[in-house]
Amino acid sequence: MEIDIRRPDDWHLHLRDGAAMAAVVPFTAARFARAIVMPNLKPPVTTTAQALAYRDRILAALPPGSAFSPLMTLYLTDRTDASEIEVASQSRWVKACKLYPAGATTNSDSGVTDIRRIDDVLARMSEAGLPLLVHGEVTGNVDVFDREHRFIDEVLAPTLQRFPKLRVVFEHITTARAVEFVKGARAGVGATITPQHLLHNRNAIFEGGIRPHYFCLPILKTESDREALLAAATSGDPRFFLGTDSAPHEQRTKENACGCAGMFSAHAGIELYAEAFESVGRLDKLEGFAADFGADFYQLPRNTDRIRLAKRDWSPPANYPYSKDGGALVPMRAGETVRWQMVT
Ligand code: NCD
Ligand code: ZN
Q1: DSSP state of 190
Q2: What residues are paired with 3 via a beta bridge?
Q3: Among 245, 258, 264, which is best to mutate for testing ligand 1, by the most ligand atoms less than 8 A from CB?
Q4: Which residues of 105-131 are buried (b: 16+ CB within 10 A; e: fewer)?
Q5: What would the CATH number be for the domain defined by 2-308?
Q6: Which end of the chain offers a freer environment for a tag, N or C, measured as fewer CB atoms within 10 Å?
Q7: Is 245 a catalytic residue?
Q8: 245 lines ligand 1 (CB under 6 A)
Q9: What is the pLDDT of residues 241-285, one digit of tens each?
Q10: Packed helices 223-233 and 176-184: angle between N→C axes, nearest 10 degrees
Q11: Which of 9, 237, 245, 292 is catalytic?
Q12: If you measure from the C-alpha of residue 261 to the centroid of ligand 1, how many angstroms do you get, rounded to a whole number?
């Protein structure tokens, strides 16, 4: 069986920098026309000037002839100046700002300690129509499985009320509660969903032993949460769209007594979604989720060319080359089966 869909975009992607970025960007560029590139580098991308320089480095690392277009984001900190929002919204390539609650995830130490500290920035973003992308988890001494719920109640709902025009993407949602929240939210609220949260529940982290390659943040949740996410993604509701959250980490930093959070999925960044949609007989809804609704949310034109996917088993390798010193990258489903393949 083969299907063909409008070329998709990835609305949540980590590309890193330097040799690591050069190693991973071709996987995304082969599948997606555009991606929203996350700013959690070390140090973080906090200004438009830094974002544009980062974009140039990404373009320079693309395979010859690639038409892939990176779309950039700024990392909000307690010290972000509202005047930076003006610069960002007038630039051609900065499309959003990212809220990392300080300490919530990889490279979030410079994140926002209390959202009320950036009220002036949010007011400016709201006026400029620049979307706020949220890592939707509270921090501190809160059960790791409850952090998204608590974020909805304590941060997201009040923020949407205080800024009734602010456009917000609730990134990588992981729970049935988040699905319900987004469905009931006012206009201007969307959500991305990752392939791992559509395909796996938290048992995957503990299958026969601890599996560091299934550790990501927000952490995988229960089977009923997974079912709710899959129902939302495949429903044709335009509030839900594709964001892989592909987040590469070198093998030895994942297979470690204190392993990093993040799953690398860009090597099968559309194929894994095809597998999820097929599992519920909803391949007909893949194009909207992967190629239409995100572009519409960001008020960008939909892509015009198409890609083809074949129902064919293949096995991602045990690892891909990643860092300059020979470090490797273990992809999602390494040595296992992915059920769909891109036809090139
Ligand atoms: C991401 C990363 O590694 O940058 N990790 C992850 O588990 N998803 C950060 C993030 O999106 O939380
Ligand atoms: Zn992410």
Answers
A1: E
A2: 309
A3: 245
A4: bbbbebbbeebeebeebbbbbbeeebb
A5: 3.20.20.140
A6: C
A7: yes
A8: yes
A9: 999 999 999 999 999 999 999 999 999 999 999 999 999 999 999
A10: 30
A11: 245
A12: 6
DSSP conformation letters of 24-54: HHHHHHHH-SEEEE----SS---SHHHHHHH
Three-state DSSP at 173 gives coil
315's tokens:
């096995």
Ligand (nearest to CA of 244):
2
- From 151, 148, 160, select the one nearest 184 (Cα to Cα): 160
CB-based contact 2:309 (threshold 8 Å) = yes
C-beta 108 within 6 A of ligand 1: no
d(CA 319, CA 338): 15
Residues 281-306 have pLDDT tens digits of 999 999 999 999 999 999 999 999 99
Q: Which of 274, 181, 269, 157 is nearest to 232 (CA)?
A: 181
Backbone angles phi, psi at 73, to 5 degrees: -135, 155
Helix (H, G, I), strand (E, B) or coil at 8: coil
Does residue 344 have a pLDDT over 90? no
CA of 98 from ligand 2 middle (Å) equals 10
Distance CA 267, CA 25 (A): 10
**What is d(CA 2, CA 146) in angstroms, rounded to the nearest whole number?**
40
pTM above 0.90, yes or no: yes
Distance CA 194, CA 225 (A): 13
- φ, ψ dihedrals at 94, nearest 5°: -85, 120
pLDDT of 22: 98
CB environment 179-191: b (16+ within 10 A), e (fewer): bebbeebeebbbb
Interaxial angle between packed helices 82-90 and 119-128, expressed in degrees from 0 to 180 and rounded to the nearest 10: 20
Q: In whole angstroms, give the CA distance from residue 100 to residue 85.
A: 17
Which residue has 């891909």 as its token pair?
A: 320
**Residue 244 near ligand 1, beta carbon < 6 Å:** no
Distance 193 CA to ligand 2 centre (A): 11
Q: How many angstroms does the Cα of residue 80 sit away from the middle of ligand 1?
A: 21
Tokens of 222: 């229960």
